[in-house]
């Protein structure tokens, strides 16, 4: 009987050790349940806000990896203020001034965005929400008119720079 208890105790210790050693840098799936304005939509109000809804709480400070670009990803960023809801699943970003009429815009979510547990986000499913991969080739080596190296480490994952969602104002 004591041998069975020892084996069970050993198995429990191994399970605890493995869970403690899990790699928080390995991408985890976090659903992006809603994007507003909807991707590719036209005639969006110039006074719109950007609202992203996630399937689990996100880490504090992740708003630093959300940009709004006028035009495409290489266009200038639009200053905006972002705030999370209390459970950190919804972020609302309000541009500092109304957006230009009849102008394309691009919401850029950087690859370094993490959930509340510190897991890097696997964005693969986000293409079903209308997202497009942000690659170095599409940026032409530039981000907001600066070399991509100026973006900082959190914007890049091993093979991409996050996800893009576009819309056009009316």
Quick tags:
2 helices, 170 residues, four-stranded antiparallel sheet, single chain, 12 strands, alpha+beta, disordered N terminus
What is the element layout, followed by pairings?
Layout: H1 2-20, E1 28-29, E2 32-36, E3 50-54, E4 66-70, E5 80-84, E6 90-95, E7 104-109, E8 121-122, E9 132-133, H2 136-139, E10 142-143, E11 146-147, E12 163-168
Parallel strand pairs: 1-8
Antiparallel strand pairs: 2-3, 3-6, 4-7, 5-6, 7-12, 9-12, 10-11
Describe the structure.
By secondary structure, the protein is an alpha+beta fold. The protein contains two helices and twelve strands. The strands form four sheets. The protein has a four-stranded antiparallel sheet, with no helix packed on it. The protein has a four-stranded antiparallel sheet with strand order 4-7-12-9, with no helix packed on it. It is globular. The N terminus is likely disordered.
| Helix/strand/pairing category | alpha+beta
> Helix amount, in percent?
10-25%
Estimate the strand proportion.
25-35%
Shape: globular
Rg calc: 20 Å
Count helical runs.
2
- Secondary-structure element pattern, one letter each: HEEEEEEEEEHEEE
Strand order of the largest sheet: 2-3-6-5
Number of DSSP-assigned strands: 12
What is the CA-CA span between the terminal residues? 76 Å
- Biggest sheet record: 4 strands, antiparallel
Give the low-confidence spans: 1-24
> Can you give the mean pLDDT?
80
């Amino acid at each position: 009987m004591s041998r069975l208890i020892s084996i069970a105790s050993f198995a429990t210790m191994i399970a605890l050790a493995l869970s403690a050693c899990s790699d928080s840098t390995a991408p985890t799936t976090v659903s992006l349940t809603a994007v507003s304005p909807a991707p590719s939509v036209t005639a969006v109000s110039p006074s719109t806000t950007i609202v992203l809804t996630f399937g689990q709480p996100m880490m504090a400070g992740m708003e630093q990896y959300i940009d709004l670009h006028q035009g495409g990803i290489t266009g200038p960023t639009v200053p905006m203020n972002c705030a999370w809801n209390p459970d950190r699943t919804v972020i609302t970003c309000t541009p500092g001034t109304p957006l230009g009429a009849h102008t394309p815009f691009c919401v850029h979510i950087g690859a370094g965005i993490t959930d509340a547990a510190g897991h890097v986000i696997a964005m693969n499913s986000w293409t079903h929400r209308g997202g497009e991969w942000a690659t170095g080739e599409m940026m032409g080596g530039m981000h907001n008119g600066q070399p991509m190296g100026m973006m900082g480490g959190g914007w890049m994952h091993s093979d991409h720079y996050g996800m893009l969602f576009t819309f056009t104002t009316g």
